[in-house]
Here is the input.
Amino acid sequence: MPIAAQEFSSTLPAAASTAWHGLRSVGWLKSLSDEKLAVLAVQCRWHRLKPGQMLHGPYTDRRMYVLVGGLLSLDGCSAGGRTMILGYLEPGFFFGAFAPPQPPQQVLVQVHALRESLVASLSNEELEALIMSEIRVMRAVVQHLGEMTCALERRLISLGTLSVRERLHAQLLEQAEHAGIVSGEVLLSPAPRQNHLALMLGTSREEVAREMARLVRLGLLRREGRNLRICHVDGLRVLLEAAR
Here is the structure.
């Protein structure tokens, strides 16, 4: 059973005096002064998560959550018990904002921590007051929503038009670009877990294992302890383009 997040009251002086430093790293809040960030930190509820913990509240309450530090997994769970990873959330991403009080019964959205994470949340009323009083924050929020929409469009197109093999190639390339490509190769540390890849791609772990083994035989991937090296990023791109 998931462990509930520990919630730290934002009214504590110690929390209020240090929390705004974390908010400073959130891109769409960068136009706010230190004084305004300190006030915002007091308004926030704070949630600290350990790896594997579930964050309770998003998509069931009327609050906006923002990841200040760490890494979160956004999971969709059907009434039949099937789970699919909808995406990964990195620091600066917000979620749950303006969501209806009750999600559709067919799909339940859950948020889990993949690493130790710190999350802040505001009520929709507090969020609305913030963006209405700070025009640059409003513009940044709109831009952020546009970026999230584009990412969702790419995800839907991938699921609807690519085979599992092609989706795996695309996912590995995305992770390679995020990690940083050097001299045509990249080290993913730690290696992406096959069960996470399966949930991300909408397939089984066994099929992911077969496709990963195929890429190893082709010389495109190499296991290095707990890490995974993509030896020829361009070769992976060629395979993906050839299938399109």
